[in-house]
Specification:
By secondary structure, the chain is α+β, with helices and mostly antiparallel strands. 42% of the residues lie in helices and 28% in strands.
Length: 105
């Protein structure tokens, strides 16, 4: 499971933003199981998203469909990055930079 920090000021409505971004980015209605939301789309057999500790992080677990074609994989990856951007408030570049700074500590 991957964990992504949430930009300051965006933690209050994280659970609602997870639902909204899953709908907007993937065009499907997420299923809810407790506080966990999950979908299936394109090259993702399963994408699970949940607010982390204190709503300060986004925890995501994915299961890939290895039989998906290249175009489907590219589209799914683009939508997944857009989901992360919208939910965390950080761009892909910012997430990579933050990830590297945490690893270096």
């Amino acid at each position: 499971m991957q964990e992504y920090p949430i930009k300051r000021g965006l933690t209050k409505d994280l659970e609602q933003r997870i639902v909204t971004e899953l709908r907007n980015c993937f065009g499907v209605e997420p299923e809810k199981n407790g506080n966990l939301y999950h979908i299936s789309y394109g090259a993702l057999k399963r994408l699970e998203a949940i607010a982390g500790a204190g709503g300060k992080t986004l925890r995501v677990n994915t299961e890939s469909d290895i039989t998906a074609g290249d175009e489907v994989i590219i589209d799914t990856n683009k939508r997944f990055r857009k989901f992360l951007d919208g939910t965390t408030g950080f761009s892909t570049k910012e997430r990579v930079k933050r990830s590297k700074s945490v690893e270096g500590e």
